[in-house]
Design brief:
Two copies of one chain form a homodimer. Chain A is built from twelve helices and 18 strands. Chain A is an alpha/beta fold. In chain A, helix 6 links the parallel strand 11 and strand 12. Strand 15 of chain A pairs antiparallel with strand 15 of chain B, so a sheet runs across the interface. Chains A, B: It comes from Leucocoprinus leucothites.
Chain lengths: ~400, ~400
Amino acid sequence: MFSLLLRSRPAGVHVARVSLPKYRSLSTTSPTRTNRAIVYSQNGNPAEVLSVLTYPSLAHPTSGTVNIRYLLSPINPADVNVVEGVYPSKPTLTSNLVQSGKGSKDEPVFIGGNEGLAQVTSIGENVDGLNVGDWVVMVKQQAGTWSASQNVNAQDIVKIPNQGLSEVHAATITVNPPTAYNMLMDYVELQEGDWVMQNGANSAVGQAVIQIAAARGLKTLNFVRNRDDISQLKDQLRKIGATQVLTYDDLNDKSLRDKVKTWLGGKEILLALNCVGKGGETTEMLRYMGKDGHLVSYGAMSKQPLSLPTSAFIFKNLTAHGFWQSRWYLVRSRAEREQLMATLTSLMKEGKLAAPEHEVVSIDGQDSDGEATTKIRNVFQRLAAGRYGKKVLLKFDE
Amino acid sequence: MFSLLLRSRPAGVHVARVSLPKYRSLSTTSPTRTNRAIVYSQNGNPAEVLSVLTYPSLAHPTSGTVNIRYLLSPINPADVNVVEGVYPSKPTLTSNLVQSGKGSKDEPVFIGGNEGLAQVTSIGENVDGLNVGDWVVMVKQQAGTWSASQNVNAQDIVKIPNQGLSEVHAATITVNPPTAYNMLMDYVELQEGDWVMQNGANSAVGQAVIQIAAARGLKTLNFVRNRDDISQLKDQLRKIGATQVLTYDDLNDKSLRDKVKTWLGGKEILLALNCVGKGGETTEMLRYMGKDGHLVSYGAMSKQPLSLPTSAFIFKNLTAHGFWQSRWYLVRSRAEREQLMATLTSLMKEGKLAAPEHEVVSIDGQDSDGEATTKIRNVFQRLAAGRYGKKVLLKFDE
């Protein structure tokens, strides 16, 4: 039923690189629907269950809360799993968007989205350290960032410095860069010149790992899938700081051992980051791990179990962990979260951590909820079909 | 070629329960070959490569060394892997057993055996804290304990109190009981009343886990293979302190979840010990593990890889480790090793840690090296065929 929609990009879903001037509708009337959210009542395929819902302007924020307006909200792979209902984090039901019908107490809905950059628009009593116009990101998980505006608890947001940082940088700061940063910090005490190994090195997290490692003086041994334009990809990853880039096919080459040995120059690899989650390739990669090494898995996109040789645990003292940034936020203090954001924004401002390649999808205020719903579902269908290949960021017309 | 030998136990290899009075040869002459070792020149099937070698009496020990005489030396499963050459620990070559031929510099040999109880027979200069007659066990790995006597570095042995402890207790104290004890201590801080889960619960380590856990007030959820005499095995394990005993088949029973929940009474299992090393059953067992749990694998007998769901690592914060008692000895101090032995001997003396079921195989001093070799090879063939089912301990005639 969606195949026809794929032929062309539907009118009203404006796609633009954020570095270009923002595309504006040529309509002479200004957008009429400025408060909208992408919601669902039941789990399922996002291209079938999501819909766009318009709601009235927010009341003045109550004590301890602020009103925010989202500037950009990414669609992350895990967001799709949340809508499907197969992700461990669940959003809470929202019942105060409207007075009656969908989004009210009669028919509560989930709002999609876990990550996003917002701006403070008004501030309730008993809120310290925030001003109107401040950039904020959510530290609460599954907050429903695919919204135009929200009333949120001040404790659930963290201020982000908006000088020298692009909107895309700030909108994508809470999931992938901290995953990369914390995996590099939390498991092995690495010194300048030490090596880290990873698969899925061209994923969003993988690229952040390469850049943060390079900024810290760490060397990276990176594995990617072989492909037609492999030399281009290798160049791209080396350009952002990758020390060595190999394909999984290279793992079959017996001469690789000697090569890697030469590269390491007597060092041992004690940290391996596993995005792929598959058995065979991960096991092969582990051959290059030293004794007492740590394998940290963070990508569960592959539904296949992790198959590891028992002997690696017993005789090489391998320890296998899982990293989940959502848990990190839950168990760490507010001060630690703020420190993390400060560290990452510094790296971004110094040009050491680039914004991801991306496309901005704008939701036109002129469109009816029905029209906007059709367009949003089409975006998710294109995503599922792998038609993007870069990060998609949602933007609601003001 | 060995099948004929299996028909009956060959003369000269005396098998007796050590709790019974020791069987003595009725021969009127006393044994003539009192210094012997079980050696091999190349890796392979123990039933094919091992041979018994007689060597002269030891010289008086040099400074810092002592001469010891082995009382009992177990054959552990890992010892077979060492002889096969598939185990990460390798013994060092011995070239001073005899002046010429096999066991000399011309033809150095490996001596089998990693664990054993010995008695100090003479002491060199500069050795503190040891007396003739003291019981000692090896802290050096692959020391060649399948010997009648040895000259050893005093640093490579630890004294064991010989009051209130059987020879079998002391001879089997360095591998299985410390594996059980350290796995219970090193990964999760368990409080009285907490639960531990394990598979292979009727293995030597498994039974030690049950007993040590019970002595510490911990509860155990134990999994074993289903078998004809399962209720007998369950009774036996409960008798030594198992709280609950289940079979892997029970894991298919959907009502098990509720049962386990009731048993746990609100507690979560945070430590699982994996002897089997197989994927499926381990994964099934992990369903009963709480968040932030630790899976410790120590048995590599199954050559199959450990297959674990990536989601357990990421979303349940599972950490997977390997435990190897050999590594523990390498990285811990002498004081820690002695403390460990003291703790285990206390448990044994208090009757809280029973000696393993066992058979003693005596090597008759009347037999020629050729005869003894045939008999020893037969023992290993019986072991490989699973003909024992209890721990085999070697004893050299004095």
